[in-house]
What does this fold into?
Amino acid sequence: MFTIKNVPVVIEPGVGAIEAEFAVTNPTKRRRSFPVHLFRVDWSKETLAAAPMIPSTRTPHMFSLTRNPDESVALIVYDNMGRLTFVFTRDSTGKAWEKKDVAAEHAGKTVTQFSVRFSFGSSGSRDNFMAAVDRVIAQVHANQTPNRDDVETAFKLLSRSRVSPVVMPIAAAKSTMKEVKI
It folds into this structure.
């Protein structure tokens, strides 16, 4: 699995290069990470044809491993204020680009929804909690009575938390807001 880490959240609009960290995880080998330099893409006829998006005044800053975005495995896009906006990576075939939006709270933008943060002792407990909650939500959306074991599992995991839940503002992804009534 390919991961991009430690990308600057905000840049100066005139900067020519940024530093980041790429990590590769292979099931048979341990995780490897290495620092990289990403260079500003200078917009020309050739780079425009190779880019996965058309630059605009809203998203004019794009950084790539090479000066030509077609030769890169990742592209980092910043908005006109210099805030991180999109990350493009190659799909499994290496030919098409996959666009990943950066959540507003990670990019330093104004948040619009409220959420509750739960703390767990381990990532395994967190994953079990999320799986149980996902099953309960799927049953509720299907107009079924939630499975008692899933509900008990979720609340048992929450009751083991040493830190009480904290209310905090967080931006919600647009794709998940379709069920939200505002």
Remarks:
- The mean pLDDT is 81.
- The longest strand covers residues 32-40.
- The longest helix spans residues 123-141.
- The chain is about 25% helix and 30% strand.
